Amino acid sequence: MKNKKWLIGASVFGMVLTGSAGVYAGTKLETIKAYLNHGLAIEVNGQAFTPTGDQGKKLAPITYQGSTYLPVRSIAEALKTEVKYDAKANKVSIGSSSSSGGSSSTGGGESTSPSTGTNTQATGVKSKYLPADFPLPKDAKATSLIESTVDGNKKVSLTYTTKESLTTIGTSYKNYYQTKNLTQKSEDIQADEFSIIGREEGKYAVTITGNVSAENKDLNEITVIWGEE
């Protein structure tokens, strides 16, 4: 699955800061493999919102190990919340109650933070938009669930944990989508990870990936990105 293609339709990680090399001196940076989540729709106070950075450049959320991170500065400005970046202390402060010692970031002071979404840390999975027959393990527990509508189309970004094996879960989704009229489909199921990608043209697209949980090796983490077209 090293060359697998990921169809990311909608949920992240680590703090990402862009700027001069001096910003990184002495920081505890760690190289990770993450994904730019171009398909995730964002709404702020009920209105569609596109995060932007320097010179109006569009920014995409970042998805890493089942969590999604949004650009702090762009989101804070949309919410009319003050955000400051202290380069010397290597600290981002959000809100007017933050320490006055930090200087406002200019230019490439973009960073990312976790998206809370809805039903975070909820027991079970209570999705309003996933198909009623969408297979879920009985012990599934949602760690992230973001649901929205964009131009009338339902969008779901779900991450859940389960003790079921990745082979069992991956096979269940493979069998499920074999009964659907998919015009595009890709499947890769292994003992330690799997990827199911499918699309029914004009109706919906879905990506389902599974890995061993980074936080608890006894659990597997499944991420479902599903959206109507």
TrEMBL record:
Per UniProt, residues of the Copper amine oxidase-like N-terminal domain are 59-94
Q: Which residues form the signal peptide?
A: 1-25
Question: Which UniProt keywords are given for this protein, alphabetically ordered?
Answer: Signal
Name of the protein described by the UniProt record: Copper amine oxidase-like protein
For the keyword Transcription, the answer is no
Q: Does the keyword Signal apply?
A: yes
Ranges of Low complexity composition bias in the record: 93-103
Region (Disordered) residue spans = 92-124
